[in-house]
Structure of Precorrin-3B synthase:
Amino acid sequence: MNSSPRTQPDSCPGVLAVHQAADGGLARVRLPGGLLSAAQLRVLAAASGELGDGHLELTSRGNIQIRALRPGAPQTLSDRLYSAGLLPSISHERVRNILASPLSGLDQDSLYDVLPLAAELDRLLCAQPALAELPGRFLFALDDGRGDLGAVGADVAVRVLAGGKGLLVLGGVSRGAEVPLEDAPAVMIAAAEAFLTERAAQDSEAWRIAELADGAAEVYERLGLEPRGLDPRGLDPRGLDPLGLDPLGLEPLVAAEAAGTAVVVAGRREQVDGRVAVVVTVPLGSLSAEQAAVLSDLAELGNGQIRVTPWRSVVLGGFDAVDDAVAQLEAVGLVVEPESPWNGVTACAGKPGCAKALADVRADARDVTPRIRRGRQPVHWSGCERRCGRPAGRFVDIIALGNGYAIDGEPVDVELVEAVAAARGAR
């Protein structure tokens, strides 16, 4: 069944296709697997300082946005990002939406390091001209077995299983199909191609697999998948093109396990090599130039990477000791304490950046959040009913009404701090 018929292509911003917001141009930089080098983060921070509002926004898909771009700035920005290796494909820049478990390959909960698979998936994606037609909201995910990406709503996901296999999940639906992990990128590309083929067959403008009529079932059928593995007849010898063969002996479709509540929160993590990683929450996902500089400097003292997560946080790894690093992070307002109330709190741009917003939700969130303890549920502040940037899964839904707020659909008639604390289950 078609759950949300579309009548026009999506308008997700990129670096070249900039969205014009109330405060200027908004550019979104895709980071497949969430990976950045220290040098690349410095390039982004400098670009925001010189061309935008001086902040970097972390998104719910592990990407980075730059706001308030001046007229003419997108061309300068794209030139800088191309030189820094952040814009490897002009034609595919909006479709490189690839999430990977942020702690993959670092700690003992990682069954398999999926970051090399994410890099190969990105390479294959950019090498297929037809896939430039994917909607900007089409999402890939590679879960290293811990289940942290189970609720992100990916169109094409592979979750690592024991024994070198991965479970394929399409549009949130699993048929129990297992694929060899080394073949996962090619299978995921084939699924994306099958989506485009099925979308054309339905004469649809759908942005997601779940928006097609029986989308997951039709894409599985075009792939020719067995319940316990990939039917080799379903792919050409290069492992890229679906042949649309009928599946044999398929089990009934079942809803994929929604195990994605195990988000990665702030704190120290012991690595399998004896070193230490740090998960750092960026309050409201807004990273200042000073904070970006500290992250870049510390990354160079570790493994050189900054991993951006879907939960407005970053991972730094490869430290022999982290006390000094933690002190530097906290000194610039970043969060490493797992019990901090800032963990799990997000907000849209709000006023004055968004013309549709009814309140300066970020200012209100900054006022309320430090005054309550950490709660059991995530919180998202929205300036209007569009709820831009909302997290996956369940969350406390705070929406501006113009003359106050509603929480989970009910207008707030007590002190806002009290209402948010109660809704979040603050302890």
